[in-house]
TrEMBL record:
This is TRAP transporter TAXI family solute receptor. InterPro entries: TRAP_TAXI. Keywords: Signal. PANTHER family: SLL1037 PROTEIN (PTHR42941:SF1). Residues 1-26 form the signal peptide. It comes from Martelella mediterranea.
């Protein structure tokens, strides 16, 4: 570690100690679990880096577990049920949970936001045997109506959102089976291998710039990223709350043009039962080590800490400890 890095870590450690001073549990170790997603995913990289940052500054003897479990909408439930203390979650999913809509039967009231705007996530469909610029609907109804669609096992946001997108494009499981195609729910390594050996034709995924899975697929097979029509983008926004964002040209091999896709962002959430002091200390440490966080993955490069509190990014009530930090910085009124 460089002298500068050691100084930053030391300052952050003093900051957390100061944040906890004066309370009975001031220097007591804490045990935290951060839910993310499977090994090889962007979120797994994020959580590992968050764990590295926090291990440097939490009281001696603290443990931070970053297991490869959960997924986009499962993570809210893990935190709500007390199976994880913190989790990465999509801003859009937070809204669903808060309002009890789409993936949730009732509002979930015991989760809080720590920060948001970490990145931009795109709902993307990678497909073989198609020309660049092919729309999602045209691919499944005209180009390859017998397509085998590789989907992650149920429980991930990629699968849930992918099923919604395909259904709105006229390629639901029933519609595709009627034309000789099918859905195949298989692990990520099998989807990647399926593109390489021709047994998988398409996959919907929630991706980032530099997304490991999509990068590997595009390196091993001749694929394109399908282009949702403006009408499909509007439906995804109106029915499900997606935003839109541009996936820059050159993000993946064979993608020579910008593509406008449904989008959301990554947030960090916590249990409402987390102490205000601990939440404050976690947010303080991550914001003050933002450069380490941003350097861990290309998708985090544009993270702006000054915007991390904004309601349109977090879509949950902020934890009081997070509010305290953002107000101290002068970013919140």
């Amino acid at each position: 570690m460089s002298l500068k890095s050691r100084c930053v870590a030391g300052i952050a450690a003093l900051g957390i100690a100061a944040a906890l001073t004066g309370h009975a549990s001031a220097q007591e170790p804490v045990d935290l679990t951060i839910a993310s997603f499977k090994s090889g995913s962007s979120w797994f990289v994020y959580s590992a880096t968050i764990g590295e940052i926090l291990r440097k500054v939490l009281p001696e003897g603290s443990t931070i577990d970053t297991p490869p479990l959960g997924g986009g909408y499962a993570n809210v439930r893990l935190v709500s049920a007390g199976k994880a203390d913190m989790a990465l979650s999509h801003g859009m999913t937070n809204r669903w949970a808060k309002e009890g809509i789409v993936a949730y039967d009732a509002p979930i009231k015991n989760i809080r936001g720590l920060l948001g705007g970490l990145d931009t996530y795109y709902l993307n469909v990678t497909a073989a045997d198609a020309e660049p610029g092919t729309s999602v609907k045209a691919y499944f109804t005209e180009v390859n109506p017998r397509a085998v669609v590789g989907l992650n096992p149920p429980g991930s946001m990629a699968t849930f959102a992918g099923e919604m997108l395909l259904a709105e494009a006229g390629a639901s499981q029933e519609q595709l089976e009627a034309t000789g195609g099918r859905y195949s729910y298989i692990p990520i390594p099998d989807i990647i291998a399926g593109f390489a050996d021709g047994t998988v034709d398409a996959t919907p995924q929630m991706i980032t710039v530099g997304h490991p899975m999509t990068t590997e697929i595009s390196q091993k097979a001749d694929v394109v990223q399908l282009s949702p029509s403006p009408e499909l983008l509007d439906v995804m926004a109106q029915k499900y709350g997606f935003g839109t964002a541009v996936l820059p040209a050159g993000t993946f091999r064979g993608q020579d043009e910008d593509i406008t896709l449904p989008s959301t962002n990554t947030t960090l959430i916590a249990s409402a039962d987390m102490s205000d002091d601990l939440a404050y200390a976690i947010v303080k440490s991550l914001i003050e080590n933002a450069e380490q966080l941003k350097s861990s993955h290309g998708a985090l490069a544009d993270f702006n800490p000054e915007d991390a509190w904004k309601p349109e990014l977090v879509n949950l009530p902020l934890h009081p400890g997070a509010i305290r930090y953002f107000k101290e910085r002068g970013w919140m009124e």
